[in-house]
Design goal:
Layout: H1 3-32, H2 44-68, H3 73-98, H4 103-130
C-alpha cells in the first residue's frame, strides 16, 4: 500500500479513537465519582449529559481526522462519520440487552454523522481562512 493510504487510515483511526477513548474515560470518571450510578438505572438528565459529551468528543474526532488527513479531509471525515453511524446503529441492538431509555441510542444514531461532519467542517473552515 502507498504511504498516503496508511496516513488516511491513521487519520480516520485517530479520530475514532479520540471519540471512543475520551467517551469511555469520561464514563469511567463519572462512575468513579458517583455521578453515574452502576447499571442502567440512570436518569434522563444523566443520559442527556452522556449524549452531550459524546457529541463533543465526536466533533473533536472529526476535527482531528480532517487535520491529519493527507488530502481531501472531508472525504476522511465522511468515512469516520459512516463508521460512527454503523456502530451507533449496532448500539441499538446492544442497548436492547443492556436496558435504559430507547431515546439514548437513537440520539447517538441521530448525532453520529452531524457531529463528526461539524468537526471536519470546523477544521476545513479554519484552514481556508488561514490561506
Amino acid at each position: 500500500m502507498k504511504p498516503t493510504i496508511w496516513k488516511s487510515i491513521g487519520a480516520v483511526l485517530a479520530g475514532f479513537l479520540t471519540a471512543a477513548v475520551l467517551s469511555t474515560a469520561m464514563d469511567a470518571v463519572l462512575h468513579a465519582t458517583g455521578v453515574f450510578p452502576e447499571g442502567p438505572d440512570m436518569s434522563n438528565g444523566l443520559y442527556a449529559l452522556a449524549t452531550t459529551y459524546r457529541v463533543l468528543f465526536q466533533v473533536l474526532g472529526g476535527y482531528l481526522t480532517a487535520r491529519l488527513a493527507p488530502a481531501r479531509p472531508m472525504k476522511h471525515v465522511w468515512i469516520l462519520a459512516g463508521i460512527g453511524q454503523v456502530l451507533s446503529l449496532l448500539g441499538i441492538i446492544a442497548w436492547s440487552v443492556v436496558g435504559g431509555p430507547l431515546w439514548y441510542p437513537l440520539a447517538l444514531v441521530a448525532t453520529a454523522i452531524p457531529s463528526v461532519w461539524l468537526g471536519g467542517y470546523s477544521f476545513k473552515r479554519a484552514d481556508h481562512s488561514i490561506h
